[in-house]
Every structure is written in C-alpha cells, then in structure tokens.
Amino acid sequence: MYVAVKGGETAILNAGTLLAQARRGDPAVSEVSVAQIAGQLRLGVARVMAEGSLYDEELAALALKQAAGDQVEAIFLLRAYRTTLPRFGYSQPLDTARMAVRRRISATFKELPGGQVLGPTYDYTQRLLDFSLLAGGEAPVVAEAAQPLPEHLPRGIDLLGEEGLIEPELPPPGDPAPADLSREPLSFPAGRATRLQNLARGDEGFLLALGYSTQRGYSHTHPFAGEIRMGEVALEVVPEELGFAIQIGEITVTECQMVNQFAGSSTTPPQFTRGYGLAFGEAERKTMAMALVDRALRCAELGEEPAAPAQQAEFVLSHSDNVEAGGFVQHLKLPHYVDFQSELELVRRMRAAIASAQPAQEQTA
Amino acid sequence: MSATGYNFAYLDPQTKRMIRRALLKAVAIPGYQVPFGSREMPLPYGWGTGGIQVTASVLGRDDVLKVIDQGSDDTVNAVNIRRFFARTADVATTDRTAEATVIQTRHRIPEAPLAEGQIMVYQVPEPEPMRRLEPREAVTRTLHALADYGFMHVKLYEDIARYGHIATTYDYPVMVNGRYLMSPSPIPKFDNPKLHRSPALQLFGAGREKRVYAVPPYTRVESLDFEDHPFSVQRWDEPCALCGADDSFLDEVVLDDAGGRMFVCSDSEYCASRQHAGHTGPAHRAQRGSLAAARAGEVGIEQGKPVPASNDTASARLGRGPASS
Amino acid sequence: MNAPLLPGFAQPEDHAQRVFRLLLDALARPGRVQTLPFEFAAPAPLAPATGAAALALLDYETPVWLQSADSAPWLRFHAGCPLVDDPARARFALIDDAGAMPPLSAFAQGEPEYPDRSATLLIQVAGFAPHASTERGPTLRGPIWSGPGIADEVRLGVVGLPDGFWRDWQRNAGHFPLGVDLLLVAGAQVVGLPRTTTVREA
C-alpha cells in the first residue's frame, strides 16, 4: 500500500470495535440502560425524537446511547431507521386545544381561564449545581393539588381571535393536503405547511440563532409569547374501512404561539399576526425559536421586505436540517486528492508562468 | 428481505419505485435535474447517499458491482459502500472495470473504456453547476428553463482575464445534448471527454440535494470553452511510475519529507492490470539493478529535484503488484 | 360474479427490478426492442409487458389514466394507484387502442422549471418491424430514429400506430424540454420513445 488513506475492511471493522469500547467507557462503572436514558434524560430524548422525526422514546433513547450522547448523531441514527419503516397512513390534525395540559403560560395576559400553569420547568430554578445529585439524591415527593386542572384549557390566543384582534388561522384555499417532506423534496416557493414541517425537524441550535437574530434587529416582528403549552394530545386516524376517527394513542408535544407585530392600514383594521412552533416532547426553547422564524418567513405574505437572514426562506429551509448539514460538512474528511491534484497542477502551472515572466519584466523595468 | 432483516439493497419497494420513476424521466431529459424524495441512508449525506440510492434502485441479483473513490477500489469510502451492498444485496463485486455491470464512483471515471450494457453511477455533492455563482435554487431553475447560461460563460471568461486560464479543474461544467448545463460531479476535467458519447448509461445521484440526472448512451456532452481558449485536459510530464501509462490521471504520492514524490495512476485497477500484463514504469525499472540511483529522477522529478535515493523506502512502498494485491 | 384477479409478480422485488431495468434500457436506447425476461399474464386488455411495467412503476403516488377501465380492479389491487378521468392529471397513461387515443398534447407536458412533471404513456401496438436484413422478403423501410441513446441512427417500424402519429410526435419533440415520453408495447416487447428521439419517415 502506498497511499495513506487507503484502508481495508479490517481497518473499518477495527475502528467500529474501538468506537464500541469507547462508548461503553469504564467497565467497572455499571452500564446505562435505555430505560434510564428515556426516563432520566427525557429532554435529550425529546430532541432526538423531534429532529429525528419519529415519536418513539425507546428508540430515541437507544440512539442516544449508541451515539454516546451525541444528539446530532442520534438524530441521524433515528432518521436512517425511520426511512425503512412502511407508511400506513396519515393521522388527523392534532387538536392542541384538547391537550391534557401539564404546563401552560402566557406572557400577554396577566391571568387567563385555567390560570398560568408552570409545570415542570427550569425557568425559576436558580442555576446552582445540585451536588446532592452526585450522591444519587432521591426526588422529592410531589403533593397533589387541591384542585385538579380542568381537562382542557382554552388557548389564550383564541381570546384575541374572538375580538378579531389577531389574524385568524385559516386553512389555505381548498384545504390541500400538506406536502410530506420526508417523502418529497423541498421546492421553492415553499408554502407555510411545508416550511413548518421543515422547521419542526430543523436543528434547534440553528433555529435558536435565527430566532435570536430577529430580536436583534434582523427583521422586526415584535413578538410576545401569546401562549406556550405542553402536555399530551390524542393521536387519531380514520381507517378507510371505518370512515370515522379512532384514537390510536397520545403523544407529548410543546406548542408555542407568538403574537407579533400588527398589520393593517387606514382601511384594513389592524390585527396582530402569528408565529407558530410545535415539537415532540418537552421542547420549549425549540418551539419558541421556531415560532419566531415562522413569523419572519411570512414576510412576503404580510407585505414586508425580505431583507434579514431569517426572512430568506430558501436560505433558512435549505440549511436547517442537521442530518444534511452534518453529513456535508463532515464529508470534507473523505479523500479529495484527485480534485486537489487537479488544482495543484493548475496552481503550479500558473506560478511557473508568472515566475518565467517575472525576470523579463524586471529587465524592461 | 435478505438475511440482515433489511430490504434487498436496503430501500423499501415504494422508495425504489419512486427513484426508478425519477430515473426514467432523467434519461428522457438528458442533463436535467429531476427532484426526488431522497431518503436518509445509513451513511451520512455527502458521503454518497445519492449514488447509493441510485445503485440500490437499479441493482439486481445478477449484477456485478464495482465501487471506486478517487479512482481506487481500496479507499475507505469505496470499501464501505461496497461492503454495504455486499451486506444488504448480496451481489457479486469486482474491481475489474470490464467485468462490472454497475460502477458506482466518486470523483473519477475509470480509464478502461466503458461498454454498452454498463451503468455508471456518479455520487454528486452539488448537482447544480451554477450553484457557486447563484445560491438560490429558485433562480437557477429558471435559468435552466430559459437555457440562459450566459453568466457561466462570463465566470469562465473572468478566469481567463484574471489568470490567463480557465481556473476550473474539476467539476467542470458540461452542456448535455446541446440543451442542459450539467455538473459532471467533481471528476477532474481530465475525465470530461469520457462522458461524451459514452456507450454506457450514466446516472447521477445527489442525495442531500435530492436530485437525479442522467446522460443516455451516445449523447453529446461538451465541456464549455471558448474559441480562443479551447477546453484542454491535464497532462503530466512523466508516465505512471508503476505501470508506465502515459494516458491516465496520475496521483502525486509524497514519498518522504524531503520533497520526494512520484506519480502513479489514480485508477488502481487500470494500473494493476497493466502491470499484470507486463507493463512497467520508471519506478520498477529504477528498482532493478545498478541504474537505480541514476534513474531515480524518472520516478518523480519535481522542479528539477530528483527523488532522493531513498530507494529502500520506495521499493518498500512499491511492493504492491498484481501478485500481492 | 367477478372473475378472481390475476396475481401480481411471482417474485415482487426481483421481477420489479428486472422490469425496471428493461424500461430503463428501453428509454436509454430508443428504437431497440426489449423483451420481458419472464412469463407474465396481465388482465385484458393489457399486454403482458404493459401489466408488468404498471406493477413495476405504479403506486399510490402515481395518478393513472386508463383508456379502458377493464383492468382497473387489478391495478387498484396490486398497485394501489389512483385512477383519474382527466388525462392531463395523469402521470402515467395505459393505452390499449392506439387508434382511439387522445392527442399527445392532451397529457401533462411538464412545466418549464419541472419538465419531469409530464406523463409517461404506455401505448400498445400490434408489433415492431426492425430493419430486418431478410434475404427473401422485401426489406422493411421503417422510419429512421435518432437522438440520445442511439449511436448513429436506427430504423424501426411500428405496426398499429394511427395515421398522423409521427406528425403528432414531431409536435411533441418541438416543445422540448416539455413533452410526454412513450413506451410502446407489443405483447412482451417494449420499445422506448423518449421526447428526445427524432423519428423521420423514410
């Protein structure tokens, strides 16, 4: 062998063995189980499910374990598994108004029917490392509330809708079935349903940065967190032979509805506009960022000049997917020596041409 | 289902039908990029997922598959993709170009002429030849619809104005059947002439960008150029150090940290079969006998510097002939 | 009583792949007669190769226009493809009586940005008459085919196409890159006629 990057199957297999050993870590420390990951690292699992586009806590936890905690790698593993699954059909739209709420807050109303429900949140924890967890401290016992939450809480933002103060959320004309981005390639211009699908499985870090940029003057959407809710919603399908919806299970989702900059004119009554975010599991940061980006991407329909990065649909949607981005950035590791050789040959030739021309120039000077 | 529990060649039947339909349209509109519902594959995007999906869709039990990367059957990525198909499709594999019915490649076209009945599958990172000039797909698609390729010519001409040469050496844009501007994938421009009127069917897959395209056999494929700057390919001042070929694309191999280097065929199978047929290059001749030191220069003179007389090193590395491979 | 439906492919994966390769070859090498490599029975009026091509290519994602509805139950059962009445909405069309077919322009032509969004037509004909070098009979002077996929040119007569068909084909080619693509079928034989192929009557 005379080329360093050549390697046989043995090298590849050995690398795989080394990886498995490194993943396992110190054998004297007990192995983490998939159930432990699903139960105790649930926010990490939720992100893998959301961006992996597959709601399965056990498989997402398995992917995280196999990926040694690398989220983007785990998301990739889950996506690659997902593509092999047969497609049985599409569910009915989720009705988040009928969510069994565990958390619901609104920043736009002091109080709203059903109240502000903090739920399990890091928001008002003081970010002090809890050294008792080092010793494997027991979780506190939660006391039952005197009054159970109502079964369903109305969406706070709908209260604005009753007054016509916020744009209604209407299906597009003809209510066409949305495209399925996991089956069809993205094309431009992309409708809102397509954009939201893309954002829902888009990289959280990317959306966070873009959403943040809209708050710093790269587009002006003046967002208010109209409502954020998290809890369980029913998943329903309509089997062709039955003709009516049956519930096949429930999933945890987080939904964020942003209330944004009003639009209108001297003749059209002004209304607040919406930005929407939804993701599997507890994913508040992701859904808030998604809602900001969704609103920014609606610039054209709302008569705003698309100037900021977050408003450029093709830019945002083409670069949001971390499986695509991670693969392509890292493909630079693959051998490129043929192309490099081609460049090298050209650069040498051009340098030689300049070098041979130089003395002549000096003489004439 | 094969023994692995996965579908034959990994993809499910519906996905294969979808890709197959896209491929038929690709053949019907040579050089045009057909969008397809590219799937996540168990290899990363950018690592050949488009080529793999195309190969998985065309491959049958009777096919003989060859996989190359940088012209070589032995690079890690080629080994990995060949291993993937051997595992999921249980097909025969080969490194002999002439024996293969399907050849998946990254960055090269084999030196041995292709034949009717063979299918070339190219891995394509960026299918849009104008992408570096215009990042917006909505715009490039319109330019293709209008066959408006003026600014590609302008770009090449700017190169000439600035450097005195067209500065594109790989992924050099081509015109297919006089209508569609096409990326030949990042093959060196050395390989571009092989695309023209090839008897083989040539399929291109871009997984991350979700496009397939095709060049049917015997189709005109012309590299863009200008009358005063005709298209030309790379040439080397010396033949392959191992097999003496003077018509192949050569890789530069650095031998030591003193500037020693030699040039050998990038197409490892072409080189091996030539050596098997008795052809030798300067390195072999240098290895033999007392003229070694005197002829070392032939191995890889670079800017007048002969390869240092580290023939021990060179011969250790030159051990790979047909017998030892 | 309905007669029981004919079965689909005996070996679904393998047969679908072989039929696809045949169709790929047909479109990549227009004017060359390809023959189905295994026995296959399709319900009337579909020819074996039409039925095989349908099972290899059609599914719930491909709206299909059927000239004759007789094979609809079989197609719906095995391929699950939606059937449409408007030829312009079909991605595939199955035509068993070429004499009574709509003009090529009645089918989806694609869009300038997406010329692939055009229909593929499977048209059944009576047979193919290659430019045979028969020693006795008169040499058939079929039309001359040329274009991508054809090394120089090839002569192939198609028996059973309606009068004026090649003029209609010329119009189709005139709209390139828009236009339909054809797979001509006779029994177990298939000939591809993509939109890039020029056919000159000798």
Automatic annotation (TrEMBL), chain A:
One matching Pfam family: PhnI
Lyase among keywords: yes
Keywords in alphabetical order: Lyase
GO molecular function: lyase activity
Region called Disordered, residue ranges: 166-186
Keyword set includes Lyase: yes
Name listed for the protein in its UniProt record: Carbon-phosphorus lyase complex subunit PhnI
The species this protein was found in: Chitiniphilus shinanonensis
UniProtKB/TrEMBL annotation, chain B:
Enzyme Commission number, as recorded: 4.7.1.1
Region described as Disordered: spans on this chain: 274-325
A Gene Ontology molecular function term of the record: lyase activity
Key words, A-Z: 4Fe-4S, Iron, Iron-sulfur, Lyase, Metal-binding, S-adenosyl-L-methionine
Protein's UniProt keywords contain Acetylation: no
Protein's UniProt keywords contain Cell membrane: no
Signal peptide annotation: none
Catalytic function, reaction form: alpha-D-ribose 1-methylphosphonate 5-phosphate + AH2 + S-adenosyl-L-methionine = alpha-D-ribose 1,2-cyclic phosphate 5-phosphate + methane + 5'-deoxyadenosine + L-methionine + A + H(+)
InterPro entries: PhnJ
Family assignment from sequence similarity: Belongs to the PhnJ family.
Role of this protein: Catalyzes the breakage of the C-P bond in alpha-D-ribose 1-methylphosphonate 5-phosphate (PRPn) forming alpha-D-ribose.
Record-given protein name: Alpha-D-ribose 1-methylphosphonate 5-phosphate C-P lyase
Organism name: Chitiniphilus shinanonensis
